[in-house]
Structures are given as structure tokens and as C-alpha cells.
Amino acid sequence: MNKINIAIDGPAAAGKSTIAKLVAQHFNMIYVDTGAMYRAITLFYIQENSEDFDELVKKINLEIILKDGQRVNLNGEDVTERIRENDVTEKVSYVASKEPVRTFLVEEQQKLANQKNVVMDGRDVGTTVLPDAELKIYMIASVEERANRRFKDNELRGIKSDIESLKTDIERRDQYDMNREISPLVKAEDAISIDTTGLSIDEVTNKIIELANVKLTK
Length: 218
What we know:
Blueprint: E1 6-9, H1 16-27, E2 30-33, H2 34-48, H3 53-58, E3 62-66, E4 70-74, E5 77-78, H4 86-96, H5 99-112, E6 118-122, H6 125-129, E7 135-140, H7 143-157, H8 163-179, E8 192-195, H9 201-216
Parallel strand pairs: 1-6, 1-7, 2-6, 7-8
Antiparallel strand pairs: 3-4, 4-5
Helix pairs in contact: 1-9, 2-4, 2-5, 7-8
């Protein structure tokens, strides 16, 4: 069978990470969560309290451990859980819009995908990071559905939140991500759209597996 890269893009809380992990597990491929990488830099931005992004990225030692899931080490510290907290979530779209941050992380992400056999999810994977990916998926879902998913996820992580605030935050992030100057959130021309509203995790996963099987056996 051929080796392929699978790019999964879409707005916040569309279910990208959950689905991407399952697709990667099915094919024994490597899963790369680009959002976690941006969250790690956002955490460092909060810690440093500096708007000099050129200098911030120079101080960062970011290690992505692709074994038994994805762990994120920031300057020697495992921050995998910390980067999911509300203060990081509120600022990640802003930090991700900065050119030094995107340049730094796109290079890191492309290195991870060099040998193919990667499932990568994010906002600009199919358009900027892996424009030659053999399969591109663009996942969407209603704001209400995404807010409910984020609420349940926060509950599991012990993070306090409420549905209305989450809706507001998701709408704000959509506007920011879609209208930013550098690598805005857009559907790649050759991406296949999947609206996950009302669909189960298994239904979405199976759809992508079917599409990937076609690419793998060509």
C-alpha cells in the first residue's frame, strides 16, 4: 500500500483532534496535533508577557513526543494538560496569527510529515503546511454543537465553563481565524467537506477511513 499524508482542517471544536487520532490509529499512522503546538507557544507568551514574537520563538524548545498519543514538552516541561486551560484557549488564535510563530511552527510541522504516513489536523494544514497532502478533509459543525463538545471536554478535564460563554468564544475564534492576514482558515480547493453536526465519532471516522482507503490503494 502507498504511504499518504492526511490533512484535516476546520474551525475550533469541530472534532478534528478526536477523529484524526482514530484515523491514525486505524492505519497505524502518526498523529500530529498542530493546535497543541500553537497552544504551547501561547502558554509561553502568557508566561513571558511579551509582544516580541521574534524573540519569543528564539527562546522556545518545543518537543513533540509522538508515542502513546502526543505529549508536548515546552522548554523541558510536559505541558500537555496545562495548554488546554481557559487562559490559553482565549489567546491561542491571537498568538497563532503572528508571522514569527507561524513560520516557526510550519517548519516544525513539515519536518514531522517529511516521511509521509501522517495524519495532521489544524487550521491551515491542507493549504499551507501540507499543500500536497494526498487526502484533505475540511470538518465543520454548528456553533451549538461545537460549544457542547467543548463543554463536555472541559468537564472531563476538570475545567469550569458554561455553554453561552463557549458559544461566544467559538464565534470570536471563527472570525479571528477566518480573517487573519497570515494563513487564514479556509477550505483547500481539493479538500472534501464533512459536516459533523449530528454525526457520531464513528460515523465521521469511517467516512474518512473510506476516503483514505481509496488513496492508499491507488
